[in-house]
Amino acid sequence: MDKVRIGSVGLGRLGLQHAENIAGRIQNAELVALCDVDKPKLEETAKRLAVRHQFTSFEELIACKDVDAVVLVSPSALHTKQIAAALNAGKHVFSEKPLGVNVAECKEAEKAVEAHPDKVFMLGFMRRFDESYKYAHDKVAAGEIGKPVLFRSYSQDPEKFIQGAIAFAPHSGGQFLDMAVHDIDLARWFTGSEPETVYAIGGCYAHPEFAASKDGDNVSCLMKFKNDCMVFLFAGRTAPHGYNVETEIIGTKGTLRIASVPQKNLVEVLDSHGVRKECSENFLERFDTAYVNEVQEFVNCIFNKRKPAVTVYDGTRVSEIAYTCKNAFETGELIRF
């Protein structure tokens, strides 16, 4: 195998970025097929990226003999069935989160992956592949900050995108499922432990529309992990300053902070507003390199015949934790896992 021949499914915002990355930024990979129901967009993208196979049917894509692996960036409700179908068709599979829209679907995905031990399956928890998060994780693993005492992580979307969030609210599953899953994954990864209890609060501080979906525009939770580490997560949709993801790990011998001051780059702007730094616009800009790194790892695993560190079981466990956080938020009770 000279190159892994990839078929990418879905051409939304993230799907388009994945397709462009595979076409021009991933080593030992070739984008040979695209699939999307929007035929004009499919044709335009395929022409621009010089992709020879175009499909509006997922079933036709996985039947294509020129495809070795698929990258799923399709609607969340389709992930579980598409993972199983692609594996059954003999393809390696990379899927964006979530693994499924509920825990039962995640369990189905586990069975599909277990039935094909010769195939590589990887789930897209991209923050693990961000250079700063990897650097910090290496320091924690080396014991440089001692025993982790507190893990704190914030995920905030810009207020200017609020109408899209309101429209998506009935289908999102709530902020713990839609936004905080990456923070939950990081908490497990950094602490090497699992949650024991959770208490969650929040509300509709600026946009009462979220209440109809039993959600809030800003929510938080405090968890105690089995290794006694305290874990605090915050997810918000009303950041006035831009896209903001920050994390802090406090240990017995030191503290690590990742992006404690959100910034687009190292430029400082001096104007009539004073001296300031600009924020990233969205997750695509902030985690641009991480999205490249995660698919590169997927390709490397196929070439080297090894399994990725991010597994199907991580997807299930994060979903279980997120649903428990959601339950704690809705009931106002302290819940044990």
From TrEMBL:
A GO BP annotation: NADPH regeneration
Coiled-coil spans in chain: none
Pfam families: GFO_IDH_MocA, GFO_IDH_MocA_C3
Superkingdom of origin: Bacteria
Domain GFO/IDH/MocA-like oxidoreductase: 133-257
GO molecular function, one term: nucleotide binding
Domain Gfo/Idh/MocA-like oxidoreductase N-terminal: 5-121
InterPro entries: Gfo/Idh/MocA-like_OxRdtase_N, GFO_IDH_MocA-like_dom, Myo_inos_IolG, NAD(P)-bd_dom_sf
Keyword set, alphabetical order: Oxidoreductase
Assigned GO CC terms: cytoplasm
Record-stated family: Belongs to the Gfo/Idh/MocA family.
Name this protein carries in UniProt: Inositol 2-dehydrogenase
Organism, scientific name: Treponema primitia (strain ATCC BAA-887 / DSM 12427 / ZAS-2)
